[in-house]
Amino acid sequence: MSTRDLARALMALVLTGCASAPAGQGTGTPNLGREATPAQIAGWDISVGPDGVGLPPGRGTAVVGAAVYQQKCQACHGARGAGQPNDRLVGGQGTLASATPVRTIGSYWPYATTVFDYVRRAMPYTQPQSLTADETYAVTAYLLHLNGIIGEQDEMNAQTLPKAVMPNQKNFIMMYPPRGGRP
Amino acid sequence: MDESKRSFLKRIAGLLAASGVMGAAPRRGVAAEPPDVPPWMKAPGAGMREYGMPATYEAKVTRTLIRSQPGTTGSGASRTPLEALDGMITPAGLHFERHHSGVPDIDPAQHRLLLHGLVQRPLIFTVDALLRYPMVSRVHFLECSGNSQLLYQPAPPALTAGQTHGLVSCSEWTGVPLRLLLEEAGVDRAAGWILAEGADAAAMSRSIPMAKALDDAIVALFQNGERLRPENGYPVRLFLPGWEGNMSVKWLRRLKVVAAPVMTKDETSRYTDLQAGGTSLMFTYPMEVKSVITRPSHGMTLSGAGPYEITGIAWSGRGTIRRVEVSVDGGRAWMEAGLAAPVLPRALTRFRLPWRWDGRAAVLKSRATDDTGAVQPERAAFIAEHGHNAIFHFHAIQAWGVAASGEVKHVYA
């Protein structure tokens, strides 16, 4: 039995244990949580997975995104994502094995959905969670386009964004769950 | 020597003494030497204080702030002054900090923790509700995986132990086992991971394996007996013993049970380890076995041959420290140091070794072994395996060079 199988078996055991004592009924657990409504959850659930789950309705292209970027992002990240004073966002492809690797969205990030997720939750730095879904799609499209990943007119939406292939994705090695013991 | 030069040297010596060098000569003119009775015995002392502070004479013992990027005040790190501390516990006010968009000022009455996703009952907890749950207390280190990253550089940084290794601290953490909350919500069989999200302006988020959540994860409310400090996650944080610090999400407000990792920014573009060949290691969670000598260390000066204690800290995210060896000749001969009880799993372990310095140049090293048998590697071997480009998970042996003058400096040896 591999470590992963063992972990799965243990998990099944644990979950069976949960199922036999559901929802705090008669288990003696405090059970002081209030049930959350779908509307409450929708208000807070901003995370987007690599499969696109969590992406909101909306759309944007690099053409539109360029204007949003110039207004809301350029002061920190430079013209066309060139960086300075803060993180560089564009270029660096082919440098990762060199003595001076340049890690950008184009050269390093493994998933396009992460760009949307991160911009939506944390950017612009001084006004996080202020962009509309369309603005976020557009800025994401602009950054992907500057990195040569999509075309200038390609529309990013909940269906197309997860399909954008990031060039460095194949170079990540997952160390969890540990295979054959210690990673 | 003329008078001005002598007074200059005296001033330098005074500055060094104030900066905490070893064996500084007692200052002249202090009347505590017998037979004199010191002034603080000749008048009543100060009254009580509602919240105590360190002695004013220790005001120099502070965190080292790492400058933030332009326009991002509060986004950055501060490091624990390891060389000025002893024992295994870090005072809360000196616990290292790493923030991605500053420290939020959270009203605990308004804060909520939402647990949802692949569960039978999505739940909202108030902080008051969490405070009514049965709690556990555990002593554990917390280490930012970016700790000691300057040692990836080809030249040894001229920095103190705290400035290089001070993104590790150790506290007693008290809170609710996460497992308990998950059981109340009822986790679906398809669940494999949990997205944990903070209530800071970065909404910092990480994907946590369900196995870890069910094993020893704590929804922490207290640190060293008092409620969490704002910079350590007040009013509630996640705590994952032994794993890279970034995953112990502060200001915890949302736990979403999911089937697969969400691939957030901080588990893809950051906190992944670029290797020499251009590949990157992802999900490198446990902090590997590590140690550092905190005294003597860089910036201190030994005051002549004679007896000293070599002391430092060792830790492993995989378990308990079993052995710490110390070398004073750069790693040719090793002596076993004593471990100060209690030696706890995934906690800082204090080691000590008496040393009689012969006054000749020496190179001090410590090497930790944990109960999985893992041994802290030499830096040269570690760099040969991982290259210079990684930022995270540096855990190789640290060397301090002692010159015949007594000066201690960071060296690669």
Average pLDDT of chain A = 89
Strand content of chain B: 25-35%
User: What name is given to the CATH topology of the domain at 290-411 in chain B?
Assistant: Immunoglobulin-like
Annotation field: number of helices of chain B: 6
Residue windows where pLDDT falls under 50 for at least 5 positions of chain B: 1-26
Query: In which range does the helix fraction of chain A lie?
Result: 25-40%
- Which class of the domain at 290-411 in chain B in CATH terms? Mainly Beta
Quickly give the structural class of chain B: mainly beta
Q: How many β-strand stretches of chain B?
A: 24
Sketch the topology of chain B as an H/E string, one letter per element: HEEEEEHEHEHEEHEEEEEEEEEEEEEHEE
Measured on Cα atoms, how large is the radius of gyration of chain A?
Answer: 21 Å
For this structure, the quaternary state is: heterodimer
**Based on the structure given, which CATH architecture of the domain at 290-411 in chain B is correct?**
Sandwich
Query: What is the CA-based Rg of chain B, rounded?
Result: 23 Å
Order of helices and strands of chain A: HEHHHHHE
* Fraction in beta strands of chain A: under 5%
CATH class of the largest domain in chain A: Mainly Alpha
